[in-house]
Amino acid sequence: MLQKRSKIAVQNFRLKTKREQKFGMALLYLISILVASGILIVLLSTLGELQF
Asked: Half-sphere exposure of residue 15, counting CA atoms within 13 Å on the CB side?
């Protein structure tokens, strides 16, 4: 009985960690996009200032 319960708990934990990993990956992806766009904006603004 206890073994069955622990097995189910382990399965639920694995599912939860998988879901959290996906969420973490999505979060990292969003952060990297934000950082990249920020760098692009800074580069473009510096280039614009140099041209004028």
From this structure: 6
